[in-house]
Design a protein that fits this description.
- By secondary structure, this protein is of the alpha+beta class.
- It has a single domain (32-509), classed as Cytochrome P450 (Cytochrome p450, Orthogonal Bundle).
- The protein is built from 18 helices and eleven strands.
- It has helices at 2-7, 13-29, 59-70, 89-98, 110-116, 126-142, 148-167, 176-191, 201-227, 232-237, 241-244, 246-271, 281-294, 304-335, 337-351, 365-378, 410-414, 457-474, and strands at residues 73-78, 81-86, 105-106, 387-388, 393-395, 398-400, 405-408, 475-478, 492-493, 499-500, 506-509.
- The strands form four sheets. Strands 1-2-7-4-3 form a five-stranded mixed β-sheet, with helices on both faces. The protein has a two-stranded antiparallel sheet with strand order 5-6. Strands 8-11 form a two-stranded antiparallel ribbon.
- Strand 9 (492-493) and strand 10 form a beta hairpin.
- Helix 7 (148-167) runs parallel beside helix 18 (457-474), helix 12 (246-271) packs across helix 14 (304-335) and helix 14 (304-335) packs across helix 15 (337-351).
- It is globular.
- The N and C termini lie far apart (62 Å).
Length: 518
């Protein structure tokens, strides 16, 4: 009950509780026979639902454990909000791939509605989502996503990142900032048409504020969505809650600051726009909008707010996930030096001192397997982003009603005991056959699957390979002096993205091994 008292610490507590209790009474009085066809799950308590059974600090683990009791399709109530959870590779694949249309909608939580205002790519549905995703995917491909052009940009950025690592001269440092800057710069090159120096004030502000916003959203996700509001009807009934929550006010201040900084860059590109010289995605958006206007079409989806939110979405998705995966990778290498040694040996033998390129992946199977295992065990987005059913769905013998929030639990896919020999252990052999060649595993879904699969998957895979291989070619990563490998903490910081716990590493130069041949 302490959670309830904290969240509802407003002057209208009594009225709010009475209203919520009334809604619950109405809900139970008007249950339909179809409710008995719904998936099983623990019985909810009034107001708190099943929160008393859940560890919100490890919700992905808790839900995975509940699936072993209730089955691969079950429901839980996070506060008054009903969620259907899908667990295990076969069940998640059945929903996201085989029944993609029925499970392909995005559940847009009130907090993400506040931030995105119904625009952009990630938190939209219908024609808006289709148009913006199609535009973004087409533009990313035009600018070489997964091809030679993007490879050149990544290789250039690896050089800048190595220079930053070298400045620490083997002393302990936090990898977070330089790695996130490098990942953010690649998105900048594609979106704006140029990279930024790591100490450029506007760039630093965008990167820092974006990261803070993501962390704060993670903290508010359960409070503002799963607990306080059952759905948008209750949200609209009690709008007074938003400004009374201090964390919400601080979050929106960060969001507004981030949007303002990005808008400055967009406005500069608008002022210098030349339709014959498309520098990046922002220019491509201007060209598309101009073309529609000249042809007499008035496509309201190509508007300034949609452009801003599309840029924001790309930065959030492309910076935090790639940067965090790379940080996990360096931490795993320091934690498991015998694996790092094998990566060093393969890189030195195959590359012979020259810089890695994407084509080298097929000749570096062990290194590639290590990167795959980093993604699997790091399990960045364990809950996935919430989906929503687009219609009534008969699924695995249960009725899931239209508009139901669905969590396809990626943690359960990447740790499925029936799919992985050692699901909770860092083991690159998961991705190697008996001949040491890389193999494809169907249960490898770090980018999700189906209609909502990450549109930047190709770029992210290229980034991870080139950054990781380049850094391991040049450095040996160790714990700080006085800290053993066993003492390195692999406990994640839980949020929308699982970050490593705060830590420092030493990047010891392998100068005698990596006299790079450009």
């Amino acid at each position: 009950m302490a959670l309830v008292e904290t969240l509802l610490n407003v002057s209208s507590t009594g009225a709010l509780l009475a209203a919520l209790l009334l809604l619950l009474v109405i809900y139970f009085c008007f249950r339909s026979p179809e409710d008995d066809q719904e998936p099983p799950g623990p019985k909810p308590l009034p107001l708190v639902g099943n929160l008393h059974l859940l560890d919100l600090k490890q919700l992905h683990v808790c839900l995975w454990n509940l699936s072993k009791k209730y089955g691969s399709v079950f429901k839980v109530h996070l506060g008054p909000k009903k969620i259907v959870v899908l667990a295990g590779y076969k069940t998640v694949k059945q929903a996201l791939v085989n029944q993609a249309d029925e499970f392909g909608e995005r559940e847009i939580t009130p907090i993400f509605q506040d931030i995105n205002e119904g625009h952009g790519i990630i938190f939209t549905n219908g024609d808006m989502w289709k148009t913006m995703r199609r535009f973004a995917l087409s533009t990313l491909r035009d600018f070489g996503m997964g091809k030679k052009l993007s490879e050149e940009k990544i290789i250039q950025e690896t050089r800048y990142l190595r220079e930053v690592f070298e400045t620490f001269k083997g002393n302990p440092f936090d990898t977070t900032q330089p790695v996130n800057y490098a990942a953010s710069n690649l998105i900048s090159a594609i979106v704006y048409g140029n990279r930024f120096e790591y100490d450029e004030p506007t760039f630093k502000e965008i990167a820092v504020v974006s990261n803070h916003t993501i962390l704060m959203v993670a903290g508010l996700m359960f409070m503002l969505y799963f607990f306080v509001w059952h759905d948008l009807q209750i949200y609209n009934m009690f709008p007074v809650l938003r400004p009374l929550l201090k964390t919400w006010r601080l979050l929106m201040k960060h969001v507004e600051s981030n949007h303002a900084d990005i808008q400055v860059l967009v406005d500069h590109l608008r002022e210098t726009f030349n339709p014959l010289d498309c520098r990046g995605l922002v220019d491509a958006f201007f060209i598309q909008k101009q073309s529609l206007e000249e042809s007499g079409e008035n496509d309201s989806q190509f508007n300034d707010l949609n452009l801003l939110m599309t840029v924001v979405n790309l930065f959030a998705a492309g910076t935090d996930t790639t940067g965090t995966t790379l940080r996990w990778g360096l931490l795993f290498m320091a934690k498991y030096p015998h694996i790092q040694d094998r990566v060093h040996e393969e890189i030195d033998r195959v590359l012979d001192g020259r810089e890695p390129v994407t084509e080298d992946r097929k000749n570096l199977p062990y290194t590639d397997a290590v990167i795959h295992e980093i993604q699997r065990l790091a399990n960045l987005v364990p809950l996935n982003l919430p989906h929503k059913t687009s219609c009534d769905v008969n699924f695995n013998g249960y009725l899931i009603k239209k508009g139901t929030c669905v969590l396809p639990l990626l943690y359960s896919v990447l740790r499925d005991e029936s799919e992985w020999e050692m699901p909770n252990t860092f083991n690159p052999e998961h991705f190697l056959n008996e001949n040491g060649q890389l193999i494809k595993r169907d249960a490898f879904m770090p980018f999700s699957a189906g209609r909502r699969i990450c549109l930047g998957e190709g770029l992210a895979r290229m980034e991870l390979f080139l950054f990781f291989t380049s850094l391991l070619q040049c450095f040996h990563f160790t714990p700080p002096p006085g800290v053993s490998e066993d003492e390195l903490d692999l406990t994640p910081v839980v949020g929308l993205v699982l970050n490593p716990s705060p830590h420092k590493l030493c990047a010891v130069s392998r100068a005698e091994k990596h006299n790079l041949k450009s």
